[in-house]
Fold this protein.
Amino acid sequence: EDDKSDLQTCLTTYDTASSNKKYSMKFREATPADIPGMHVVRLAVKENVLSHEGRVTEADYVEMLEEEHGKGWVCTVDDRIVGFAIVDVMFHNVWALFIQPEFENQGIGKQLHKLMLDWTFRQQGLDSLWLSTAVGTRAEEFYRRHGWQKSGVTESGEAHFEMKKEMWVKN
C-alpha cells in the first residue's frame, strides 16, 4: 500500500542543469518487458562496468524479477528507462542500482533506493541487506551517505556493505 502511494507521488518535473530542458520522471515497478531498457542502462554506466557484456544475461534479469526471488523498479523519462534498481530477497542483497550517465545527480538513484528499501524492509520483513560495489566510486559514497555500513571487502576487492532494517526504518 505504501509502495503504491510512493510510486504515484513520484511523477515530478525536473529542470536539468545542463540543458534547461524540463522533463517528467516516472517511477514504477519493473516488468520483464523493461529488461532491454534496463540492460542498455547497465551497459552505459561509467563505474562498476561489467568486465564482459555477456556477464549479465536476460535470463539473470528474468530470474531477479520473479516474485519469489526479487523485485525491481525503473525510472522513465518519455517512456525511456533512465535508471533501475533490483533487490534479491532470496539472497538478501541489492542486485542492481544503476542510472544512465546523463541522468546522474538528479535524485533518481535516491528515489529508486528508497522504493527498494521501503519495500524490502517494510513489506517483505527482511532484517538486513548487503551489497558490494567498486572501491573509490561515487556508488560507494552514495551508499555511505544513505546509511549503509561497510562490513569488509569481497574476494574480488569490492567494498561490502550492510543495511539493517532498524537503521533504514528510523531514517
In short: The longest strand covers residues 80-88. Strands lie at 12-15, 22-29, 70-77, 80-88, 93-99, 128-133, 149-153, 159-164. The first helix runs from residue 2 to 8. The chain has a mean pLDDT of 84.
